[in-house]
Amino acid sequence: MTNKCLLFTASLLLMWQFTYSQVEFAPSGSKWTFDYENFPFAGIEEIDYVADTIVNGITVKKLQLSRRLIYSNGASDDTLIENGGVRYLYQDGDEILEYIAGVFHPIFRFSLEAGDSIQVPYNGTEDLFVEYDRIEVRVDSVSSLEINGLSRKLLFVNELCQTIDESTLEIYPILEGIGPIEEGYLFFNEWACNTAGAGHRFRCFQINGAVIYSTGQACDVLTAFESPTSKPEAMLEVFPNPAKDQLRINYQLLSGGNVQVYDVQGRLVHRESVAKNMDSTLIDVASWPKGLYILRYTDLISGARHIEKVIIE
Predict the structure, then answer these.
(1) Given 9, 139, 141, 240, which residue has the most CB atoms within 10 angstroms?
(2) 38-91 residue pLDDT tens
(3) Which domain holds residue 138?
(4) Has residue 7 been placed in a domain?
(5) Quick one: how far is CA 52 from the chain centroid?
């Protein structure tokens, strides 16, 4: 009787493990849609499942990236179509790996618990003043989310950019079977640390046209990245502008957020976190090359954005 109970319990555990690992990542018909911004363009980026294919003897998911963009500064109403290339993903149980430079590297691991971490290679464009080597993805907390009767694991992770002269820390939710579902990007190792100034925000995930999860925005409507959540008149003021030695930011928003500054090539030149109830900050710009820069503030609670053009002379 005892052996039968043990056998039954073991069978249940095996069935639970099997069921848990069956949340397929990128099944046929998958499509992710993200808001996309890389000054001066804004629009959407779509990632589509193309087919299963073979890479290094392993069956992988081939995904196609494409973008539909407009000028975020209103310079033109023309729509720009960009081909973002292809990516190859491989699922091994609860681990999602991406094919990078001839090797499969993990980018998500849904068996992780609070305090666990993995390291992934940096696979984006270098920032102007910072060189990234690798990204440590560390789990801050774990929860779950039920979608269509299926409970999916929800990891709240922070990315620690291993750099020569800077480390940054922000927290993002990553949902099993889908990936980042708020601020963030499917290919986490390309987006983390605000690489090359490109900004992404998750919009929706579909399978064969059926919306599985969304933020409430229409999946395929082309809109400017900062609209409709931006409220520039109520968030901050920047002065002096033009600036020469220092740039002061006075905050009129109390919930806290993040500031990023980009040059006209879209390269990140400065970033900092703004604590709740902080009144102002000073940025030393004396060593910056003269020219136009874009300052972007993102509110951590509402997701609202404020974008300012700044002149350094």
Answers:
(1) 139
(2) 766 788 889 999 999 999 999 999 999 998 887 765 545 567 787 888 999 999
(3) 20-214
(4) no
(5) 25
Q: Read off the amino acid at residue 190.
A: E
In a shared domain, residues 207 and 106: yes
Angstrom distance (rounded) from CA 26 to CA 178: 8
- Count Cβ atoms below 10 Å from residue 262 Cβ, excluding itself: 26
Same domain, 173 and 301: no
Residue 292 has a pLDDT of 81
For residues 26 and 187, what is the distance between their CA atoms, to the nearest angstrom? 13
Name residue 246's beta-bridge partners. 284
With tokens 């002061």, the residue in question is 248
Tell me the two tokens of residue 69: 């963009």
Cis bond before residue 27 (omega within 30° of 0): no
Which pLDDT band holds residue 176 (cuts at 50, 70, 90)? very high
Q: Which residues sit opposite 261 in a β-bridge?
A: 270, 295
Of the candidates 180, 173, 176, the residue with the CA atom closest to the CA atom of residue 156: 173
For 9, 67, 221, 274, the CA distances from 85, given in Å and listed in that order, are 47, 10, 22, 35
- Here the contacts of 106-115 (C-beta below 8 Å, separation 24 or greater) are 107/137, 107/187, 107/188, 107/189, 108/25, 108/174, 108/179, 108/188, 110/23, 110/153, 110/155, 110/176, 112/139, 112/142, 112/155, 113/139, 113/142, 114/139, 114/140, 114/141, 114/142, 115/139
User: Rounded to an integer, what distance in angstroms lies between the CA atom of residue 184 and that of residue 187?
Assistant: 9
Return the SS3 of 261: strand
Specify the amino acid at residue 85: G
How deeply is 273 buried, as exposed, middle or buried, from its count of CB atoms within 10 A (0-12, 13-18, 19+)?
middle
Q: Are residues 77 and 209 both part of a single domain?
A: yes
Question: Measured between alpha carbons, how far is 254 from 299 in angstroms, rounded to an integer?
Answer: 9
Token pair listed for 88? 């190859």
As given in the structure block, the two tokens for residue 257 are 């957020």
